[in-house]
Amino acid sequence: MRYLHTMVRVTDLDASLDFYVNKLGMKKVGEMDLGSATNHFFALAADPSQPMLELTHNHDRTEAYDKGDGYAHVVEVAEGSDGDGPGRLLVLEAREVPGPGRSVIWIP
After folding, report:
1. From CA 67, how far away is CA 103, in angstroms rounded?
2. Would you tell me how many other CB atoms lie within 10 Å of the CB of residue 10?
3. What confidence tens digit (pLDDT) does each residue in 87-98 have?
4. Number of domains in the chain
5. pLDDT, position 5
6. What CATH number is associated with residue 16?
7. Domain range for residue 55?
């Protein structure tokens, strides 16, 4: 399996860019404009074949995210059964479990 990226939502894009680029030394390797949101992709090396961090900035969001709704997903690719075939994209998302002590589980 090959790890592709983890997605996290941000409200203050400038502060997030400053932290990941200027403090951690990550490099921006791309972005995707979705209209109401923009996905920004970062890697420790300016090489999009390496695992990345995806920061999603929802343009109209004003309230801060909490630990339960700021995280969105992890993406990995599982290689074909023979090792040479096409991979299968696996997206792991966090979902809340209703009830006492609400917790988060992983859903493949």
Report:
1. 11
2. 20
3. 565 555 555 544
4. 1
5. 77
6. 3.10.180.10
7. 2-107
pLDDT digit string, tens, across residues 24-70: 889 998 899 989 999 999 988 766 677 888 898 989 888 887 765 66
| Eight-state DSSP code of residue 15 | H
Of 66 and 22, the structure prediction assigns the larger pLDDT to 22
Backbone angles phi, psi at 14, to 5 degrees: -60, -45
Q: How far apart (Å, rounded) are the C-alpha atoms in residues 48 and 42?
A: 8
Under a CB-based contact definition with an 8 Å cutoff, are residues 19 and 25 in contact? no
